[in-house]
Amino acid sequence: MRSPLVTVILPAKDAGAYIATTLETLTRQFDDPAALKLVAIDDGSGDETGALMRRYADRFPHAEVIRNDSARGLASARNQGLAHVEGEAFCFLDGDDWMQPQRLAVLARRLRELDADFLRTDHVTVTDADRVLVRAPHPWREAVVAARDAILPQAETTMVDYPFAWAGIFDRRIIDRGLAAFPEGLHTAEDRPWIWRLHLSDSSFAVVDAPALLYRRGVSTSLTQVRDRRQLDFARAMVEAVAIVEADAEAARFLPKITFSSLALSSHHLVRARRMPRALRGEMRAEIVELLRALPHAEVRAAVRALSGPRRRVLARVLRRAGHGS
After folding, report:
1. How remote is the C-alpha of 222 from its chain's centroid?
2. Which of 176, 240, 271, 326 has the most Cβ atoms closer than 10 angstroms to its Cβ?
3. SS3 assignment for 238-263
4. For residue 129, what are the contacts with CB-CB under 8 A and spacing of at least 6?
5. Which residue in 82, 76, 103 sits closest to 39, CA to CA?
């Protein structure tokens, strides 16, 4: 039996309504099923998620199912999976998403041909019967470039604003360089500091075309939908991202970008917080104030000028509380 070529890290919690579709599509990625290793992490599920993982694991020559008795969160579960990677490459997949056939075969081949450290792709959002293509925000396709050259401009959407861990494939050397792990314990926005560390590294990457990954929106258990205490991790994640930028040799080049992104995301979360319970809404504001205090004054002033009027109005009060008032 051949060794696996790609390891798929699949963490899930209470995804029983969807995960059979996710797992079924993994059986259609390679002509030889031994080319894929499945590492499935049942992160404290209370439904049939774990049973479905174990049932499908029997269909793969290489598979491991890890059970957490209580939920550790997406970041920690992904890190558990990283410890079990075999083969030349690895990727991430969430329990309510799925892949078109041969996606991983195409990506593994392109990774070898381009000799990049990682590849990124577009994805398709699925909301009920509606499907929308979301393009990776990079102007060149099939061209290998330095990862840090895809961070700027400041006020435009770039690859650090496209943090989705599942939208691509990664060479094993990303693990060897210590770039694959997520900040432990984060329940949301765990991919924000992760994507900044990845793009500030000396890695190379390319955006390529491939069979689609389909991202299911509107799932009630998704962290993009819930409005509970886990959403507070957003600010902590961005504080970590700011620290990563500040430690870089080219911090002055990239601080305007991380500042603009932090303000834009804070505005978004403040609007979402209006639908939270009052006490939790207050905690969200306090966390965002601490995030804004971590940002340099000069870059904040410049970023505020680049924001739209509605965003500036949403941020006005927390900016003053953070000491960035005029």
Report:
1. 13
2. 240
3. HHHHHHHHHCCCCHHHHHHHHHHHHH
4. none
5. 82
pLDDT at residue number 218: 74
Residue 69 is classified by DSSP as: S
Distance CA 311, CA 318 (A): 12
Q: 280-288 contacts: CB < 8 A, separation 24 or more?
A: 280/227, 280/228, 280/229, 280/232, 283/229, 283/232, 284/231, 284/232, 284/235, 285/318, 285/321, 287/232, 287/234, 287/235, 287/236, 288/235, 288/318
pTM assigned to the model? 0.93
Eight-class DSSP state of 162: -
Q: Which amino acid is at 35?
A: A
Give the pair of three-digit tokens for residue 106: 């195409």
Identity at 76, one-letter amino acid code: S
